[in-house]
Design goal:
The structure is a single chain. The chain has helices at residues 2-6, 94-106, 130-144, 146-149, 163-173, 185-188, 209-216, 222-227, 230-233, 255-266, 288-304, and strands spanning 14-21, 25-31, 48-49, 59-60, 66-71, 79-83, 90-91, 110-115, 156-161, 193-196, 241-246, 271-276. By secondary structure, the protein is an alpha/beta fold. The chain has one domain (2-35, 45-304): Rossmann fold. The strands form two sheets. The chain has a nine-stranded mixed beta sheet with strand order 1-2-5-8-6-9-10-11-12, sandwiched between helices. Strands 3-4-7 form a three-stranded antiparallel beta sheet, with no helix packed on it. A hairpin with a 3-residue loop joins strand 1 (14-21) and strand 2. Helix 3 (130-144) packs across helix 5 (163-173).
Length: 311
């Protein structure tokens, strides 16, 4: 295990608004479902922003999901849907969303920051599948607009942090399930995934308890926990993955990433696992000393996957 701690295994239809981020980044915000959110049974819940001392935007009580598209100046055809984390109780919209999108834009990647529904607030007929349906819808929207947005449908991937990593991995492994009306597995399966300190398993031994409770509710059966454990659901058609985790993560054990890596490679799926010694949990794009470590690792992987060009 000590060797494992030291190793670094190299192995994005309703348009709502168009604005400028930092006076340069063109964005377009899309409501995934408009006023027809699937299975919405509680319309009294109000979306809330959570003030924090660091002033980074966090959003909870989400019932009406959106996808905010960030357009690069020179799109290279690759697109990434970004799922911020927050234990399925909120989304860290800025540090694990817009900051990441702006950096990926600099590499020519078109990005969509997904503000997905929160299952733990009990607002939907099927709480556990609401976020996954949102992720699938987001992939569908990007591919539908591929020509307009200069995106290659075959280079449309998904990225997630923490619980958002679980959502991204779920989209990568459960695309045959819970599919949207008139959708096909091919239309909602991401081309690749990028998983940063992800929750992978819903099994009690290594899961993040808050994510497990919010997604599946207390008292979930072992069968349900297994069904939502992405390592258990991976197969030979699961898309390639980049995983990154800090060895000193006290919130989501790095065993989550190791299990997914093992599950993919055992099925013949290409995966790269990066374990860094320090970083803890939740560093996202807002911790400069960690960013300078993991951004280059991801950039190199994107080059190797021919998703961006070499400099």
């Amino acid at each position: 295990m000590r060797r494992m701690l030291r190793m670094t295994t190299m192995v994005l239809f309703a348009v709502v608004t168009c604005s400028q981020v930092q006076a340069k980044t063109k964005t377009e915000k899309i409501s995934l479902w408009g006023n027809n959110v699937p299975g919405l049974i509680n319309t009294t819940i109000s979306e809330t922003t959570i003030p924090k001392p660091d002033s980074l935007l966090r959003i909870s009580n989400i019932t009406h999901p959106t996808l905010e598209i960030f357009f690069p100046k020179k799109p290279n055809g690759t697109a990434v849907i970004i799922c911020p984390g927050g234990g399925y109780g909120l989304v860290s919209y800025q540090s694990e969303g817009t900051m990441i999108a702006q950096w990926l834009n600099s590499l020519g990647i078109t990005c969509g920051v997904l503000k997905y529904r929160m299952p733990g607030i009990g607002a939907f007929e099927n709480n556990a599948t609401a976020p996954l349906m949102d992720a699938q819808r987001a992939i569908q929207i990007v591919r539908t607009n591929a020509k307009k947005w200069h995106v290659n449908p075959e280079k449309t991937g998904i990225m997630g942090f923490s619980a958002g990593g679980h959502l991204a991995a779920s989209a990568s492994t459960l695309y045959k399930n819970f599919t949207l009306p008139q959708a096909t597995p091919e239309s909602v399966r991401p081309s690749f995934s990028i998983l940063i300190y992800p929750v992978i398993s819903m099994e009690d031994d290594i899961t993040h308890k808050g994510s497990q409770k919010n997604l599946l509710s207390a008292g979930a059966t072992d069968e349900i926990k297994k069904a939502f454990s992405c390592d258990e659901q991976a197969d030979k058609n699961t898309p390639p993955a980049f995983l990154l985790h800090a060895a000193n993560d006290q919130a989501v054990p790095f065993e989550n990433s190791i299990r997914y890596f093992k599950a993919l490679t055992s099925k013949g799926v290409k995966a790269q696992l990066n374990l860094i010694p320090e970083g803890g949990h939740g560093f996202g794009g807002s911790t400069p000393e960690i960013v300078k470590i993991w951004y280059p690792l991801l950039e190199l992987w994107l080059q190797q996957q021919q998703l961006i060009s070499s400099k």
